[in-house]
Design brief:
The structure holds two protein chains of two kinds.
Chain A lengths: L1 H23 L5 H9 L8 H10 L6 H13 L5 E2 L4 E2 H36 L4 H15 L2 H16 L18 H38 L2 H8 L4 H7 L1 H5 L1 H6 L3 H7 L2 H7 L4 H10 L3 H29 L1 H7 L1
Antiparallel strand pairs in A: 1-2
Helix pairs in contact in A: 1-16, 5-6, 5-8, 5-13, 6-8, 7-8, 7-14, 13-16, 14-15, 15-16, 16-17
Chain B lengths: L12 H9 L5 H4 L15 H4 L18 H4 L5 E2 L12 E5 L3 H4 L6 E3 L6 E3 L2 E7 L4 E6 L13 H12 L16 E6 L2 E5 L7 H7 L8 H4 L9 H11 L4 H11 L14 E7 L2 E6 L5 E2 L11 E5 L4 H9 L5 E2 L8 H7 L5 E8 L3 E7 L6 H7 L2 H9 L3 H9 L4 E2 L13 H5 L6 H11 L19 E6 L6 H14 L3 E6 L2 H9 L5 E6 L27 H8 L10 H15 L3 H18 L2 E3 L1 E2 L2 E7 L2 E2 L6 E2 L15 E2 L2
Parallel strand pairs in B: 1-11, 2-12, 14-24, 17-18
Antiparallel strand pairs in B: 3-4, 5-6, 6-8, 7-8, 9-10, 10-12, 13-22, 14-22, 15-19, 15-20, 16-21, 23-25
Helix pairs in contact in B: 11-12, 14-17, 21-22
The chains are: A mainly alpha, B alpha+beta.
Chain lengths: 325, 646
Amino acid sequence: MLRRLLGMIPTLAVISVLVFTVIQLPEGDIVTSTLDRLSATGVEMSDERVRNLRAQYNLDQPIPVQYLSWIGNFITGDMGFSYLYARPVNELVWERLGYTLLVTVGALLFTWLLALPIGIYSAVRQYSVADYAFTTAGLIGLATPNFLIALILMYLGYTWFGLSFGGLFSPEYLNAPWSWARFVDLLAHLWIPVIVIGTSGMAITMRLMRANLLDELRKPYVTTARAKGVPPLKLLLKYPVRIAINPFISTIGLLLPALISGEAIVGVVLNLPTTGPLLVQSLITQDMYLAGSLIMLLSVLTVVGMLLSDLLLAWVDPRIRHERA
Amino acid sequence: MFRHGLPRRSGAGLWIVLALAAGSSLSANAAEPDWPAAWLEPARTASQLGIDSFSQSPVLEGQGLPPVEQRLPDDPVVIASLDSMGAYGGTARIIADDRSMFISPEGLFTISPDHKTILPNLAESWTYSDGGRRLTVRLRRGLKWSDGRPLTADDVLFTVNDLQLNSGFMPVTLPDFIGLELHAADPWTLVFTFPEPNPFFINYVAQSPEYFLMPKHYFREFHPDYASAGAIDARMEEMGFSSWSAFMITSMQKRLFPDLVNQPTLNAFQAEGLTPGLYTYRRNPYYFKIDPEGRQLPYIDAIEAQDVRENEVAVAKASTGQLDFAGVRLPTQDIPLLKLGERGSGIKVNIWNRLHGSDLSIQANMNIADERKRALFNDVRFRRALSMAIDRDEMNEIIYFGRGTPRQVTVIPDSDYFEPEFATAYAEYDVDAANALLDEIGLLDIDGDGLREFPDGESMTLTVEYVDTETPKQVSMELVASYWNAVGIDARQRLIDRELQYSRAIAGELEMTVWHADRTTDILFPINPDFWAPRKLAASLAMWSEWSRWYLTGGSLGEEPPPEIRQLQLWADELATTMDPERRVQLGKRILAANAENVWTIGTVGLAPHPVVTSNRLRNVVESGLWGWDIRWTMPYHPATWYLDQ
């Protein structure tokens, strides 16, 4: 356990160097991108001016110095300053994290609550009409680009229920204090991103559950239990399903990085107040600290998430626990 | 109006079919703009019109503010409405990117809807003296910032002398401030002096008001001349900025978008809250304009601007009546879709015209390192052939529903510098002439593959690299490439990143590129004739970067331009300084005539239709106007007089 924790440190150190390098790679930086946006104002994009602005943004120091000052602050919990938003990165991330959590967890629950039972059903009734129907529907969901589903659902939401386009709230509730009505309004909007993000994972979850379960169902212990007269539903849920579900538990850890990047494109289209669009925006404008810190955060969450998954798996599956002991 | 002069195509097929299918008529778009006469002249004041009683929006009652008479300036400015005087109240719904259009910036001067005349605004008058080297500006008395503090000459002095001309803040002075001196004769009189006559300085002040008006009482505590370094450092640390200048630069740049919570403003609306999804604004209780009945403007109490980043979502919101005003994120191609929304969504699609002289400025780099390409691009026959091979009428039909104007890169028709032949020179579709010119140059199809080769038989490919932004560049370039292919020119396209466009354009490394040409009105053309004379290095100007560099460095870097190009620079310099209006027009026309004859850049379709969607409850918005940066989109059309019919 301790070894696992210590092993994370060099991993993250290497990642941080990579992140910083990759962000520095493209031509230009926040200064040229800012000047470019302002070029319509007649602001001269002369070399001198670019150099001056870089000095004011502390971008003229050698790259290693910039790296050390950035990573030093990151370790102490200061993710730097976003030039684009003119605000500290910490504030930007925190004010969006709650909504991101809501959308991501909502989508995961939606996927699992629907896809797992369907997967189980498809395995038990393999090659039935319903199996084919669910598979087809799931694959259509997988094959359709998320943003397209988002646009269609937004349109339907508006024409059927009169919902405003995009966002998690109607305009009148956006800045309102929390109330029952605001909560209802949130639920009325939340289903669109939840379905959109959830659909993309639906087919994979469904098929994976089906395949895992089929493997299990063919094993001798199932036949034995069946011969001994264990009721079919109890048998199914207590043994093969429990084993077939393990791979999903190991992916729970990936939920953490998805908090930052998972719903990026959908978030942009649906205009969600989440962290995904922030990441996209920061990369486009080369807002170095915002982009770097977000990606670094993403990496930390991935590494921590994998650890959590392993722990969770050991807890759920006694065999893993005993192997280690 | 400029619309008179435009060739109007009658066979606007697709457009008409779709518009009729949507159950609407074209009448709205053909309407002659009918501004109130008062908009074209210096705004009258309350005392001139005999207005002696003032009133305010009911929302301001009971807020503990001083009475409206005390908040208004000594003699408030009266603004007439387009159709009718409005009712107070309501919250306008827009998307965040339209906030610069809904909240017009207030400056010392403003721009008339004739798109050429500068009118007084916060300043009540100005005079040039000393042969154009001295500009005296008189501020109105009793103007106030949105926190109630007075606006005086001191604020302008602070912005110009302590920021723009302070090397700690602007190590490299902006070109328009070089050599500028400013002092105040009294708290309401500003005296600008210039080393050279500077007749168009007022255009610059009118068009970029942000660069002259920062509230001193607010910013002085962040400026090292006024506050202790320790106190400033502590504040910067707290706000996360690396230096006071970084903070000030951000503040000044953000003033282009009226976003600054707590920072005092002179605009009709003040930012109130910025959350991830929504920007909110409330009326400025100290706004200095009133309507002809003595009621303080604006009519609208508040604005909610949703942060929408996708054009599709903006179009969907606008077409379903979820926005009161939308423009900047609505592409030309979506006009038919928006028109469908007119049927049941309670909206109106107004067709304005982008002021871009051409939506595309196709540029071949005449300073390119490759010797053969350089010779080719410097051959006027080659540029003319490329231009004449383009079927602009078809582009107009396919991309603009026949509602744009096929033309070269030149100024708009109601400019004083315009001549019809500047727009039409070498713009007629003539494949035979193009082929003849290419044959004459010696570019022949030697190997019989349908494409022309260099005289030595080596294949010739043009590479066009550009950013697909603002105007429909990619769809246009695909058509252009197919027209060029028809005359045997092999043009390959590559979309590149903005940063790459910038760095390669100023380094002279782009072979060919595409941008769009604004600065086509009499507000900006005389100051920045950049598309027509090499005097600037920018992402948008890739055809003659070395000649520009030579000009900017006084000949120490870059390449000396040939005489006809040098002449452009000299004419542009004189245009900016001459005080003789006739000479001015003569010089401007010479520059444009030389460009028309030499086709240094190639235009396609200009004055393109731009959809501006208004909800049926938003009143007083002009049905057609010019859309673009030169006039700050809506500045001449008085957004403060817009109101919501509840």
